[in-house]
């Protein structure tokens, strides 16, 4: 079995570099639209990811950046993926640690996972990226999806 690293889940159609969204809902709608067109998610994916984010916020305030890692139930996901969205203007997400606070996310990883055992490995790979501000800033500054994917691959994430 191949290692469940971040780069094995990040797939070109679901990488959005330097985007502009007015809200997390708009961001979710865009990811859902693309994933639906590809047949990677069930039709309840959008509704469930919004609801889960409302109940269990995923905003993380890092030293220099804000990030979010929204996800939903495994049964909504038909083909596994991690959508990566970098934003020109940050989008507000509620903080994972204190949902009365907001995190202005410049990068969002939408997790579309349906294999619990692989999830842990992939999350470890993702946390390695999030905790390395130097690599993270390269990902955030990537001007297009190809460049963004390259940064993740080069750094063995």
Task: Report on the architecture of this protein.
The protein is globular. It contains six helices and five strands; from the N terminus they run αβααββββααα. The model has no long low-confidence stretch (mean pLDDT 93). It has a domain at 10-114: 3-Layer(aba) Sandwich (Mannitol-specific EII, Chain A). Helix 2 packs antiparallel against helix 3 (45-55). The longest helix is centred in the last third of the chain and has 16 residues, at 116-131. Strands 1-4-5-3-2 form a five-stranded mixed beta sheet. With 157 residues, the protein is α/β, with parallel strands linked by helices. Helix content is 41%, strand content 23%. Residues 8-155 form the PTS EIIA type-2 domain. It holds the Pfam family PTS_EIIA_2. Keywords: Sugar transport, Transport.
Name the descriptors:
Mannitol-specific EII, Chain A; 23% strand; alpha/beta; 157 residues
What is the CA-atom radius of gyration, in angstroms? 14 Å
User: What's the pLDDT, averaged over the residues?
Assistant: 93
What's the β-strand tally? 5
- Shape assignment: globular
Low-confidence stretches: none
CATH superfamily of one domain: Mannitol-specific EII, Chain A
List SSEs in N-to-C order. Answer: HEHHEEEEHHH
Proportion of strand residues: 15-25%
Overall SS class: alpha/beta
Largest sheet: 5 strands, mixed
CATH third-level topology of one domain: Mannitol-specific EII, Chain A
Number of helices: 6
| End-to-end C-alpha gap | 17 Å
């Amino acid at each position: 079995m191949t290692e469940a690293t971040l780069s094995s889940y990040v797939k070109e159609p679901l990488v959005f570099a330097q985007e502009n969204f007015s809200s997390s809902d708009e961001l979710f709608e865009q990811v859902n639209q693309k994933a639906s067109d590809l047949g990677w998610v069930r039709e309840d994916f959008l509704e469930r990811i919004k609801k889960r984010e409302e109940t269990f916020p995923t905003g993380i305030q890092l030293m220099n950046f804000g990030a979010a890692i929204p996800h939903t139930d495994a049964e909504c996901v038909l083909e596994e993926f991690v959508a990566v969205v970098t934003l020109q203007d940050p989008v507000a997400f509620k903080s994972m640690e204190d949902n009365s606070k907001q995190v202005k996310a410049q990068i969002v990883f939408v997790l579309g996972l349906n294999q619990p055992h692989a999830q842990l490995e992939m999350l470890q790979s993702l946390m390695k990226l999030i905790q390395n501000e130097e690599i993270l800033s390269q990902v955030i500054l990537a001007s297009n999806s190809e460049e963004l994917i390259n940064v993740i691959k080069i750094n063995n994430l």
